[in-house]
Amino acid sequence: MTGLSAVSWRKSSRSGSSSMCVEVARSSGWVALRDSKDPTGPALVVSPEIFDMFLRRLCQG
């Protein structure tokens, strides 16, 4: 895995200028999540399959 400092982090456009968000970075073999309030803090790294399952569950309620 490449270093996380070189990846492009994104957050929802619905979050506006709020800094209380989860940011996401995707690569070919992983997805990383971090707290936008602490961009130099730890990140949770999971497989794309796990992240996609997480998103499906969120959409299901």
From TrEMBL:
InterPro entries: DUF397 (IPR007278). It comes from Longimycelium tulufanense. Residues 1-20 are annotated as: Disordered. Residues 8-57 form the DUF397 domain. This is DUF397 domain-containing protein. It holds the Pfam family DUF397. Residues 1-19 have a biased composition (Low complexity).
